[in-house]
Amino acid sequence: MSSVTRDVRTYDHFCLVARALERVGDRWSLLVVRDLLTGPKRFTDLTARLGGITPKTLSQRLRELTDVGIVDVDRQPGRREVWYRLTPAGGELGPVVDALAWWGLRHAWRWPLPGEPLHVEHLLGAITQAMENATDDHEPARWRFRFPDGDYLMECDGERWSLRTAAPKATQAPQMTHATQPGWDITVTATVEAFRQFLFDRSESHQPTIDIVGDPVAVHRFDRLIHAFADTIDRP
Predict the structure, then answer these.
(1) Cα separation of the two ends of the chain
(2) 25, 180, 211, 223: which could form a disulfide with 189 (CB 3.0–4.6 Å)?
(3) What digits encode the pLDDT tens for the residues 10-57?
(4) SS3 223
(5) Within 10 Å of residue 62's Cβ, how many Cβ atoms?
């Protein structure tokens, strides 16, 4: 007697949540979307953010997300680099990922474990969620974060806070400097470790070296809003 093999990736009943999870519910899939929401990435960029994923699994997830119209692959003749970006349908998952992040910040937070992979983009994402949802400060702002491996831009357009990556380092001409760029309220320059200490341990015995340059009023606002993140994660 022949048996029919059931596709374990389907739920075999009608539900729009189930239908959505059949496309993005596999392990790593939503995390790939999370990292593409801040801007196009190369394979190596995604590997750096997805601590623990194997190249084989990442290739499989990118192929699957491409097949269902969530990810687009940017290949150009003569260019060795391949870029991955979200399609418009993929971009519409932004509010879903944001809602999960905000829920996680309130109900599933724990401190980073010793030796646990921690990418600064994910720290900045948590800060963005705290400022978006735990403060009533949505005045326009443009903040630039400069780390040895890349730059990030955190902005508020007067309605909501958002985070995106700047141009990849390979295409950036300037080196890290201590000067704020035109059009940015502040520029924060730090190593990842110093920034982590700045967020998680601000005691007198630990004074991490980070540079915050800009208008004094903007710097004061930045410091105040960073405390909103600390207040969110410290509350019981």
Answers:
(1) 58
(2) 211
(3) 888 899 999 999 999 999 999 999 999 999 999 999 999 998 899 999
(4) helix
(5) 21
pLDDT at position 4 is 44
Distance, CA of 131 to CA of 224 (rounded, Å): 10
Amino acid residing at 40: P
pTM: 0.85
What's 94's DSSP letter?
H
The residue type of 141 is: A
What's the CA angle centered on 35, arms 144 and 92, to 5 degrees? 100
Contacts for 42 with CB less than 8 Å, ≥ 6 apart: 81, 82, 83, 84, 168
Q: Which residue has the tokens 């059931």?
A: 6
Q: Is 76 helix (H, G, I), strand (E, B) or coil?
A: coil
- 135 burial via Cβ count (<10 Å: 0-12, 13-18, 19+): middle
Q: In this structure, are residues 39 and 107 in contact, taking their beta carbons and an 8 Å threshold?
A: no
Tell me how far the alpha carbon of residue 146 is from its chain's centroid: 15
Q: How far is CA 93 from CA 67, 89, 117, in A?
A: 16, 7, 25
- Can you tell me which residue has the tokens 């890349």? 150
233 token code pair: 């994660």
Average pLDDT, the chain: 86
Residues belonging to the chain: 236
